[in-house]
Design brief:
Length: about 50
């Protein structure tokens, strides 16, 4: 069902962020809707979630 898929996706995202933070120091900075600057850790997060 949709609820199960949403739960799984949220859990995967949360786990990926937690594990990424353990492997490298993640610095959170303010984002702006005015620019298209990517998050420096985005590629690492996506690659982890693909595993």
């Amino acid at each position: 069902t949709e609820a199960a898929l949403l739960y799984d996706a949220t859990r995967l995202f949360s786990r990926a962020l937690t594990d990424l933070d353990r492997g490298q120091k993640i610095h959170i900075k303010s984002l702006s809707c005015e620019t298209e600057e990517p998050w420096p850790h985005g590629i690492s997060l996506i690659n982890y979630m693909r595993m």
